[in-house]
Structure formats: structure tokens, C-alpha cells
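Workshop exercise sheet. Pairs work together: one partner reads the sequence aloud, the other fills in the structure field after running the prediction. Swap roles for the next sheet.
Pair: D.N. / O.F.
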Amino acid sequence: MKTWKMLLILAVAFLLTGCGSPFAPIVVAPASVPVISYPGELPESLRERSVLWYGGVLRLKNPTGTIEVALPEDACDTRLSWDDRYMTYVSCPLIVGEGLPKRGDNRINILDLQTGEKRELASKEQLFPDAVWFRSPRLTRDGKSVIFQVAWEHAVDLVKVDMESGEVQRLNVDVLLTSFTPPDVSQDGHIVVICKGPNSDTVSELCLLDENGKFIRYLTSNLTSEGYPVGDVLFTPDGQYVIYESRYKLFKVRIDGSGRQEIALCGSPLLVTDEHVVAWCYVSKEPDCYSLFVASLDGSDFQRLGYIEPYCVPEE
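Structure field:
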């Protein structure tokens, strides 16, 4: 695929997951964009769950889903908690002045989607003023801390903020992380990130770290045929598998590095349950169509869950 097409897909991915989308501040509102479910029963494990989709929090229902909460207008990077109650995001307001518009100071925030209460957890200006940006905040499974990336001129760090005390811990990561890498944290405290491979500065691999950032093992190898991991990486609820995207396909791999399996022909994971994964996917035969799909974790089923009208052709 040509470079300009890759850049276009990445740009739309940022829009669909709410990175810098020009939506109104937190409000509860009906869906402004129709989302149509596939003709069949929504899997039980997905009913009433939520995903970030097309600039809002989409509640999955039968037979249709609705976007119930719009994203903050200054949100650049958003993630939902495991229980769908909280949303962590980077606040970086758009500054319009001379030259091209640019983003202002990065701040890590957490929003309670039930009460609407917002709390600022960290500010680049106060915490790391020399950093380039903050990215990819993720609430840990126990809800006690938020982990996020801090990018410097020549390196990327992982930082953890305690939700109760506000204490900041800079993790001692002993591998080179890649930029724009959303980490995930399992119920056992393991961290999965995308890092540089052992024999190349240009090849990325999935890396498993302990709760303090110490390297445990590579979960992928650039010698395998499935390509390099990109986009979001998510643990399964039991913490035994990691779901990731590579070469526009969806894979799973055990945390010991074994059992690597392709489970869907395309998709970037948004939500993982015990039996299913919800992913968004670019449909090549419909140039402006970005759809939601649901796949079984065992690879036995893959169906379109919803799509954005009028860009997608309805299924017969």
C-alpha cells in the first residue's frame, strides 16, 4: 500500500477512536450517526458493553447501538476502563494562531461516565515540562492507578499515577518503546506494549513487562510471517492472551509467547471479552467505509456488527 494511503487510514483511525475530534463537551445525547447491527443476536457477553467509536461512547445493544456520550472537544487520546465506567484521555486543546493549528499542553484526565465527574491526574507542564507529549492513558484493572506514555526527544517512557495519592512512578523500562503505543495492563499487573525488536531499530514486536516495567519476553518475532504488531493491544479478561493487529489482520498470542493464532481477516481491537473481540475495520472495497466487526476468540466466527451510513453499503 502506498504511503499516502497508509497515512489516510491512520488519520481516519484517530478520528474514529476520538483522537482530537471536534465534538461537544461531555453531554448525553442520542446518536448523531446511525450504527446498524448485523442481522442476528448480539453475543451475550457484548450486550450493554461500550466501545469508543466515531467520536463517542457507543453502547452496544440489540438490534442497534447508540452513541450515548460525546467525547470532550479537547480529547486527543481516549481509552475506556475494563468495566466501561471510566474514560481516560489526554486533554490537549487546539490552539489557533499564526501558522498551522497546534495542540496545547498535555494533561491526563479521567472521566466518570456515570456521574460526569472529571479529574485531572497529571500535567506535562507541571510533571515533565521538557517532554514532547503524553499519550495512551490506561486505567489498570484494579482501578488503583493510570499508566501512560511520556515521549522525550529520543525515547518513550511509561509512567504510573496512583489514583488515591497522586504519586507518580516512572517505570524502569529496559527495552526501547515505540511511539504511539497504547499499553495494556492485565489483572496480574503484567504490561504489554509494542517495543523495538532485539535485532533491529526499525522492527516492532509485542513485549511483555512486569508491573515495574522490567522486560519479561517478546511475544512476537519478526521472523514469523504475520508481520509487525500495530495499533491497540489488549489482554483477554483472564490475562492469559494478548489480542493485537498486524497486516490488517487480528491475532491472539499467549503471554508465554505460544499459541499464536489468526482470528480475523482485519481489525483493530476495541473491546475483548471472554469469548469475543470487537474491532474496527477498513473495508477496502468501500473506500470511505469503516465498520465494527465482532470475532470469536477461537477464530470460528467473524461478522459485521455495525457501520457508519451513508459511507457503507448495507448488507443484503
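Discussion prompt: The longest helix spans residues 3-16. What would you look at next?
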